[in-house]
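Troubleshooting log. The previous run stalled partway through. Resubmitting the same two chains, unchanged.
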Amino acid sequence: MLQLRGSTKDFHCDFIGHKMLIISDDSSLPFPLREKYAYILKENIDTNLPDGFGAYISQNASVFSTSKHKNWFHIPQYMDYMEAGDIINFKDDGSIWAIFRSNAKYNTFLLTERCNHYCLMCSQPPKSKEDSWLLERAMEAIELIPRDTVRMGFSGGEPTIYKEKLIDLVEKCRGYLPQTAIDILSNGRAFSDPEYARLLHKIDHPNCMICIPIYSDVPEIHNYVVQSEDAFDETIQGILNLKALNQKVEIRIVIHQQTIGRLVETCEYISRNLLFVDHVALMGLEITGFTRANLPDLWIDPYDYKDTLSQAVAVLNRSKINNSVYNHQLCTVNPDVEDNYVHSISDWKNEYLDECNKCSRKHECGGFFSSQILYKHSDHIKAFS
Amino acid sequence: MTKFQKQNFFQNTNESYELLPFRFARINGRVLLTNLVGEYFFTKDEVLKSLVDGTLPNDSDDYLNLRSLHFICDDQTQSAKQLLGIKTRTKLSNYSNLTSLHMFVISLRCEHSCPYCQVSRQSDDKLAFDMSYETASKAVDFALSGPSPRIKIEFQGGEPLLNFDTLKFIVHDAKEKNEAIGKDLSFVIATNLAVITDEILDYCKLHDIEISTSLDGPASLHNHNRPRPGNNSYELATEGIKKVREKLGFDKVNALMTTTDKSLDDPRIIIDEYLKQGFSGIFLRPLSPYGFAIKTKKYNAYGSKKWFEFYKTGLEYILEINKSGVHFREFYSATILKKILTLKDPGYVDLRSPAGIGIGGIVYNYDGKIFASDEGRMLAEMGDNTFEIGNLATDNFKDVFLSDKLLDPLEQSMTTSAPRCSECAFEQYCGADPVFHYATTGDFLGKKAESDFCYRNYNTFSHLLDTYDSNLETRSIFESWIN
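Second attempt completed without errors. Output:
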């Protein structure tokens, strides 16, 4: 697992607060542009650092010992993945945060840790403290993100707690990155206010998907999973309001002990009532955050529910609803879901077992969350010959 | 210590619930419940009783399922009412795009003399029974002036290929006029294939015209049903099918059977014939009670009971074929299953409410008369003009579609309000056939208790739902048919 946030004691800066810069290894970058970039010194050969960059970074601190430059950071070894094009936030206390990695297929921006749900399997346990600086950083980053970025996501917490400010973010995305599809993870309840749904609609973003979980067709189960009474109806209403305005909506179902019992019925419910959603994601459990605390109530071996998963996919396919199976390993699903199988785990937290090295289909397989490797995974992981 | 609430914290403590509208029927010892939009649920008599008594326990599976399917709502969720509204609107939304099927009767002449056909003429007099260019051009204008984004022009007869010049005129005229309008325009010729030539096929290929033909069964049955000079209707039809496939493509030809009393003896030999000819399915059609059939009382000679036995035997045989690994559909069942299992209306003209007359399909007769349906035209041939809803010489689209002659039977075809239909468990899957009921009982509504239309559909729906719901293997075959 890659560590996206780190810190160094070995740095020097003349700014107060933070500075967000794009990494460059181009020593001949035109001078007017350099201010926005951090020059990365990959090897210890070029001690003549080019002038004018916003900062200088290297894994070798000695290059800075004689440096005349004011802003430099000795990056820790565990952040050696950094490369040209990455967007890094530097702080005056030496902390370094890889906010956008140019080589990742998909980058996600955490907008807040505050949330009005308290899901049993939350991978990002909510905190109540004010953290709107996260949104501010995302707003800043949008100006630096490459215009040809295909897709990226915003998550939480619950991003809609920002109300109009989240809409401003979508508007900024539309302005700076009109070619980039964006996903916003939300519990959808804020959109049960038709006025809020209309605000989003008014921005007219060409490709903005709101990804909303429905954990069960039975409100009691959904509300239990998200630990909030009245959640179900508000979420459904939110989806209906968004779709009435032709906004893209994905439904997400995390599969675990509490949701597996009615997974097929839930997919039937979606196909009868929410046929117009744009995508349904059937997702395996990430063993992190609250999931670890609630594991006895949540864990079910994917191998044991593979027939149910097949049925659920069949129901959605029959209704011609786009759907994908996320976060599963190929050896834990039936062949009949392979058309819907997606390599979904973000690269920075994607790993494989030793057994997988023997597997002839490793390259097709989504593998594991690092947390699954550490804490819990199927007992039926078996290499394909 | 933990901040998590236990599951029972979220349980429903209020035991009262509200019933949403539903209907029920008893099938094979089970009770079938259906709701406002056609969601269905099989259960036991006790559950139905408990449900209506208000005593169904709110943690039982029956309760949870019935609530999810929108038969009840309670304190936990009120979303059912809104969702039922959306689903109702979705189901009805297609109706605003009237009319997609336009049947052009371009000649009444035919070299066949099928006893059940009332309309065809044995004549060489082109002027008397062929559609003129002038009438054809008006029919094209009429067809293109409606709201439907898709227009299918079906050439009918008689034998439409006997008036190939007018057929070509219509194709050119429609394509030319459609250039500015931009509808999705397609053509199909309903022909017995007896007079098809290479020249005609080349033309069909050039304009992407499909062929719909008749195949009643093996040679003995087909030729018995369809006499022509030389008694070779079967031979010409099967050779024609082969030719069309070679020239236009395998799937460019489909076949329809006409069911006669002789067909009813054994559906299997008919199905075998369709298999042998390489078709991917068959439509086990009931015979309509028109023309010669009514006159000769042949219709009453077998009626719907016999047809239903024929259908059941045929369906069972077709399921066996599928179980052996050959994908072969029964199209009537597939249409009904699609209505039941998805909210998508396949638009089948005979199972619509309001009925499909005029707004589903419309007929332009060779002489310019406009009929609400093909059966309405046949009725006119027998001297009853009830379903003649206009004339191309004098009426435009608006005149015809706003006329009482069309709106009256349509109004009486609404199953939600028709006596007996309104309480029928299958109302959402069914439709109305005002022409049939008018022909058999003298009024558009009909007497549902005595109606063969009802008998056939009620039994077909029951049989299909019961079979679908009680057998996993059959279930997956049925599901493969609706995709």
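Takeaways: Chain A has two domains: 5-100, 107-375. Residues 331 and 381 of chain A are 6 Å apart (CA to CA).
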